[in-house]
Recover the amino acids of this structure.
């Protein structure tokens, strides 16, 4: 390791952004919709979450829950049209970036916030060498010469522990293995030392042994640069390993938020509970798996009331009529549980019952 | 060759549920894909050793899980058992008959009893055929199973068995969700009343909440029709859940094979230990006590595998012996003759139990 030591934010510890007011990123009541031939698909319906420097927020959800669309809206890379931010605010360092002109947002992407995509093979350009693609960050944003940018690219590849970086800087994406390509994606996101990284299913396409390597690397770099990390995933196992806090999404809404230990111990939403019960465990052999009945809803026709009600074992009439707000979750005696919320009319019964 | 067969027989006895006859016996199965050079006069310059001598038994009514990283040859094994690929050498005995040597009518008869469920429910169903046609197509090839007049009724029965509405026979695949499509794939696999179903990553393309539904369905069908499953997957938690016995593959070889408890709670092969320790457990409390073995590097190319033990390039126990001598798949001498769960077959010179999954 050749880099200088930076502030070592202890993982899991309380965020230490005490000097600055407010969190690094705050999403407030975000709405995103897509116009389709069959009508308007409401992909995100009022999502709010925040991330501090040095903190890892995991956004958990199934396909179609709106977790990736939220991230694209934050980055400003939403396909529009057909996509459109229909309401809400995204505060980055206290400034609403949705109001910025595109040229200003472009200056944010790279130096201030960056994204790691799931499929490294399709996220990297096959006709340029990886050194060229890594160096592009420095050429475009910092105006470095080709030669200097290449030197920086080699340095970056060293950082993410690609063996023989100097020889491989001219190689093309297809010449790397899946794990190595994902490292290059990480290097690219880290290049300008951004404050916030969004990782969208960074290890889903990888084998478990490689997945462990990549997650370790990501956690280490995050500590070193004290970055905020939003980890988007559907894998409850990966989340348990790295996240500080979790937001569970369903049909474009956040249905539960909680610190990581709390969520697994005492879920306060029937959907979260169902998810936890439906995954087979490596460390014990269970009987029949609990299966959440039915399917995730069609975003063109989200059920009235709580979107989860057709699949929920606890659904009552009120669930079919009223959309539950994200209630703060408390202990039985009323003491508030920090950072916990549940969008269920019957959260009390779910957590305490 | 002969002693490999004997070993495989021992493996069978160790994990055999009762005194059942194996329905499928695989012996020293090898598949090399030739690498050629030159356009007109192709000459072979090497071979990708996708499957390089593996042996195992599959018993009636049991599930044998095969796990391994991508490129270890597990899907090639599936194709060989289906005789979709011709084996380079080795035998596959189905009820005592070597199916790798069969052709024509005899092969067709055997294939009726060995069916497959594919990984991707989006590409394995023809988008231009209705569900009724997809599930009914096997009857065109094997008309003896269902006479023409009966077919529609039979298809509707199958839909009902896999938990779909029988009235959906005239719908097309795009009108179904991923989980429902996988049910259609399973119904097609069941159409000919097979004895063996080979499942190649059947749930990895599905959402978590839907995975559980499909796994429960597969377990129910197994009980109902006394099916034998060869369950190929990379998700170790799912394999543990569904399997009676588990085989771990690495670069075309079997690294370790045994019952699910033997493999998961008493792994003796370093590769199995590393693989298990890398699986994230959905429980932040459990992670604290766990030791993680993080392997360095990637799987070597199967075109040019390391000498001796194939895992030695990534193994922390590797010594000179590992480069020179290929370890055989056998009960480790340390545990030979002992009655412990550690006494199962493992292809390592230094096999020793190391518990990596928190005891349950």
């Amino acid at each position: 390791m050749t880099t200088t030591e930076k502030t070592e934010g202890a993982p899991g510890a309380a965020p230490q952004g005490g000097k600055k007011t407010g969190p690094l990123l705050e999403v407030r009541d975000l709405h995103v919709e897509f116009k389709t031939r069959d009508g308007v698909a409401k992909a995100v319906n009022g999502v709010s979450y925040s991330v501090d420097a040095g903190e890892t927020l995991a956004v958990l959800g199934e396909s179609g829950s709106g977790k990736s669309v939220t991230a694209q809206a934050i980055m400003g890379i939403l396909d529009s049209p057909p996509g459109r931010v229909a309401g809400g605010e995204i505060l980055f360092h206290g400034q609403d970036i949705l109001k910025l002109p595109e040229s200003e947002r472009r200056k944010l992407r790279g130096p201030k916030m960056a994204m790691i995509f799931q499929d490294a093979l399709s996220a990297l350009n096959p006709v340029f060498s990886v050194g060229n693609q890594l160096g592009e960050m420095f050429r475009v944003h910092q105006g470095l010469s080709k030669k200097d940018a290449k030197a920086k690219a080699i340095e970056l590849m060293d950082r993410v522990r690609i063996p023989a970086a100097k020889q491989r800087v001219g190689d093309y994406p297809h010449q790397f293995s899946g794990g190595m390509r994902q490292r290059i994606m990480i290097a690219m996101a880290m290049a300008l030392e951004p404050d916030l990284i969004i990782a969208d299913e960074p290890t889903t396409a990888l084998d478990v042994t490689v997945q462990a390597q990549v997650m370790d690397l990501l956690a280490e770099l995050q500590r070193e640069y004290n970055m905020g990390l939003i980890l988007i995933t559907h894998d409850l196992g990966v989340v348990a390993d790295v996240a500080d806090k979790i937001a569970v999404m369903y049909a474009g809404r956040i249905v539960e938020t909680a610190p990581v230990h709390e969520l697994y111990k005492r879920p306060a939403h029937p959907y979260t509970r169902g998810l936890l019960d439906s995954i087979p465990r490596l460390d014990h052999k269970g009987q029949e798996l609990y299966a959440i009945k039915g399917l995730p809803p069609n975003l063109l026709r989200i059920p009235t009331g709580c979107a989860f009600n057709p699949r929920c074992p606890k659904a009552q009439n009120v669930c079919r009529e009223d959309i539950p707000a994200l209630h703060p979750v408390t202990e039985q005696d009323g003491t508030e549980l920090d950072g916990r919320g549940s969008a269920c009319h019957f959260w009390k019964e779910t957590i305490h019952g | 060759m002969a002693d490999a067969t004997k070993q495989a027989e021992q493996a069978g006895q160790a994990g055999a549920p009762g005194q059942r006859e194996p329905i499928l016996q695989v012996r020293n199965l090898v598949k090399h894909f030739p690498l050629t050079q030159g356009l007109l006069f192709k000459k072979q310059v090497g071979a990708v050793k996708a499957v390089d001598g593996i042996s195992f038994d599959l018993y009636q009514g049991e599930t044998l899980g095969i796990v391994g990283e991508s490129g270890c040859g597990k899907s090639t094994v599936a194709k060989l058992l289906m005789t979709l690929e011709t084996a380079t050498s080795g035998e596959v005995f189905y009820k005592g008959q070597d199916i790798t040597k069969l052709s024509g009518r005899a092969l067709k008869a055997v294939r009726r009893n060995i069916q497959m469920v594919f990984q991707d429910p989006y590409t394995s169903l023809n988008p231009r055929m209705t569900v009724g046609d997809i599930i009914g197509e096997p009857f065109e090839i094997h008309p003896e199973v269902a006479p023409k007049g009966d077919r529609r009724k039979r298809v509707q029965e199958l839909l009902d068995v896999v938990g779909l509405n029988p009235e959906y026979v005239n719908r097309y695949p795009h009108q179904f969700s991923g989980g429902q499509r996988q049910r259609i794939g399973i119904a097609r696999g069941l159409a000919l009343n097979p004895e063996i179903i080979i499942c190649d990553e059947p749930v990895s393309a599905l959402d978590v909440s839907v995975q559980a539904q499909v796994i429960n369905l597969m377990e129910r069908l197994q009980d109902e029709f006394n099916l034998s499953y060869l369950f190929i997957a990379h998700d170790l938690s799912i394999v543990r859940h569904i399997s009676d016995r588990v085989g771990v593959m690495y670069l075309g070889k079997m690294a370790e094979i045994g019952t699910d408890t033997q493999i998961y709670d008493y792994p003796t092969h370093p590769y199995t230990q590393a693989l298990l320790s890398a699986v994230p457990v959905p429980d932040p409390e459990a992670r604290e006590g766990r030791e993680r073995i993080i392997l360095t590097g990637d799987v070597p190319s199967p075109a040019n595998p390391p000498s001796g033990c194939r895992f030695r390039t990534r193994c922390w126990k590797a010594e000179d012996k590992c480069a020179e001598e290929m370890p055989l798949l056998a009960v480790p001498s340390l545990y030979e003759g002992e009655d412990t769960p550690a006494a199962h077959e493992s292809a390592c010179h230094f096999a020793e139990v190391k518990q990596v999954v928190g005891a349950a």
Notes: The first helix of chain A runs from residue 67 to 75. Chain A has two domains: 25-243, 250-280+289-352. Residues 25-243 of chain A form a domain with the Rossmann fold fold (CATH 3.40.50.300).
